[in-house]
From TrEMBL:
One of its GO terms (cellular component) is membrane. The chain crosses the membrane at residues 30-54, 66-85, 97-114, 120-138, 159-179, 185-206, 226-243, 255-277, 336-358, 370-390, 402-418, 438-458, 470-493, 513-531. It comes from Dekkera bruxellensis. Keywords: Membrane, Transmembrane, Transmembrane helix, Transport. Pfam families: MFS_1. Its main location: membrane. It comes from the Eukaryota. It is a multi-pass membrane protein. The lineage of its organism: Eukaryota, Fungi, Dikarya, Ascomycota, Saccharomycotina. This is DEBR0S1_01948g1_1. InterPro entries: MFS (IPR011701), MFS_dom (IPR020846), MFS_trans_sf (IPR036259). It is found in: Membrane.
Length: 559
């Protein structure tokens, strides 16, 4: 009997279980709906942690800085592993990686909910929970692109955006609601465990495999660039840790040493893949010389085989067969740089606005966490409304560039409007925050709808997970940066109704923090000026083709 027999038996049982429900009874819309319900967990766990922080402080009798690591640990691993799981999903199947990530996440959600004696254990569980969550976002996007095409894909993207954005508001409200009960933060994590467990069971029996395109390469996980993966993960971890630690002060070795080291590791990794390995492959006329979608066998070189199991022979074979994380095709997407910067600025604006407003409601207006969460509901409602009202025909009519420019200008205007808030003014919430948040949500939604339609439509199916991972990694890094900047500007806050001097000092800090939201909106506008409109280009090509056909027909009639 093979030493791997027990493991093989377990794998066989799992695979047979996934075949219990016949394929003819499975529906891609049902599967996608379940996957979208599971995808809410990413933002539920982010926003929920914002409003359960006060409950965690009370339970563990700790300060805000320590309690905030419950959110930071999750964001840390989420941001570091997204690209990797996106790439693995492209190789192993987005549906498989999504399901495994969901199961992994449900286990650690349960352990997070169970009362712990030390907050350190809870922070570790949250970090592990974030690893599972990192498998959901890129592979959820990839499933949408693989399951649907044309008008169906537009509808799928609309649902995806509604899910991702609405879950932020829902998470904040649920976290605040549970914080006001006797069960506290634990109730929130029991809820996320229940949701992830139910979705994972349903997907186990009902999931529809993502089919590989005909002629597409069939790489294996063992061929991945593991040195590159290690450098990528460690580099991202160091960058996000440095940004998180900077929330207290930037003048510490944890920031000014760790941050550059992380950036250097990412630079080395990028050079190693895009220059060294790629050049080596091309020099030997191997796989990288052909289009990415051609099916080629693994390299078998007689000279290499003769080297046996020597280290040099192993390294040579590995360099020829390695599956790069960052394929060149991923960087040929139209408007990649402006969209990456735009996404980063939108995430920064979104996160800073939420964090500032939640804390403003609690420390300046002395609201409960639940009421603070309720007051930001116009934001996610605007996001959802924008997704429901959006049609791709709108973008085609006025142009992608114009749509994004309008979105950025509205973002600037609303950020300025919200910054005029003043707790001393009568009905200030209704004047400066209620309508402005709703419009801000619509403006942010416009970016997400346009960017997702553009990126998904122009990305090959076998790169959907990787590209989604790249964009979401940038988003998570700027979420961490936003958290650090807001915490640095606001500093330690006190909940007081009698000390006017403290209230005024904190009020000025909040106003300074609002300037960061305005700055991010301005940067967003500047980069949207660089967008090249693919719709206009297609129309020009179409018109040119029609004119050419007309001239040809006219010449034919004359002759």
């Amino acid at each position: 009997m093979s030493q791997y027999a027990p493991f093989e038996s377990v794998v066989s049982i799992i695979r047979n279980g996934m075949k219990v429900v016949p394929t003819r009874y499975r529906n891609k819309r049902v599967v996608y709906g379940i996957a979208m319900a599971a995808l809410t967990l990413d933002n539920l766990n982010v926003a929920g942690a914002m409003t359960t922080t006060f409950s965690i402080q009370e339970v563990f009798d700790t300060d805000y800085s320590t309690a905030s690591w419950v959110l930071s640990a999750y964001a840390l691993t989420l941001g570091a592993f997204i690209i990797i799981f996106g790439k693995i999903g492209d190789i192993w199947g987005a549906h498989n990686v999504f399901l495994l990530g969901l199961i992994f996440m449900s286990v650690w959600s349960l352990l997070t909910a169970i009362p712990q004696k030390s907050i350190i254990a809870m922070i570790i569980f949250r970090a592990l929970q974030g690893i599972g969550a990192a498998a959901l976002l890129p592979n959820g996007y990839s499933m949408a692109a693989n399951y649907f095409q044309g008008p169906e894909l537009e509808q799928a993207i609309r649902i995806l955006v509604i899910v991702v954005t609405a879950s932020m508001g829902l998470g904040a409200v649920l976290g605040g609601a549970f914080s006001c009960t006797k069960v506290g933060y634990m109730g929130f994590f029991y809820f996320t465990f229940a949701l992830s467990f139910v979705c994972s069971v349903l997907l186990y029996f009902l999931s529809i495999p993502v089919k590989r395109a005909e002629g597409q390469r069939n790489p294996m996980v063992r061929d991945l660039d593991f040195p590159g993966i290690i450098m990528l993960v460690i580099g991202l971890l160091l960058i996000i840790i440095a940004l998180t630690e900077s929330s207290m002060t930037w003048k510490t070795a944890k920031v000014y040493i760790i941050l550059p080291v992380g950036c250097i590791l990412l630079a080395i990794m990028f050079w190693f893949e895009t220059y060294f390995l790629t050049r080596y492959k091309r020099k030997h006329n191997r796989n990288e010389c052909v289009p990415h979608n051609m099916q080629l066998p693994r390299q078998q070189d007689p000279d290499l085989e003769n080297q046996g199991k020597s280290i040099s022979g192993f390294l040579t074979r590995w360099m020829l067969n390695v599956e790069l994380i960052f394929l060149a095709e991923a960087f040929k997407i139209p408007n990649l740089i402006p969209l990456l910067v735009g996404l980063s600025m939108v995430y920064f604006n979104f996160t800073t606005s939420l964090m500032i407003l939640i804390q403003y409601h609690i420390y300046e207006e002395l609201n409960t966490p639940l009421m603070a969460a309720v007051k930001i509901l116009p934001f996610p409602v605007g996001l959802v409304s924008g997704a429901m009202m959006y049609r791709e025909s709108q973008t085609k009519k006025i142009g992608m560039r114009n749509m994004l420019l309008i979105s950025s200008l509205v973002l600037v205007a609303c950020s300025v409007w919200i910054s005029r808030t003043d707790y001393r003014a009568r009905n200030d919430y209704w004047k400066t925050r209620f309508i402005s948040q709703y419009i801000l949500g619509i403006a942010i939604n416009r970016f997400f709808m346009v960017y997702l339609n553009c990126v998904m439509a122009s990305t090959p199916l076998n790169l959907q997970g990787l590209v989604a991972g790249i964009f979401n990694t940038f988003g998570q890094i700027f979420v961490a940066l936003a958290s650090a900047v807001v915490a640095t500007i606001l500093g330690l806050l006190e909940e007081t109704s009698s000390n006017y001097k403290i209230l005024q000092t904190q009020y000025h800090r909040f106003h300074n923090a609002f300037y960061t939201t305005i700055a991010s909106a301005v940067v967003y506008f500047i980069f949207m000026l660089m967008i090249k409109d693919p719709y206009r280009k297609k129309e020009a090509v179409k018109e040119k083709s029609e004119v050419s056909v007309a001239l040809t027909e006219a010449k034919g009639m004359k002759s």
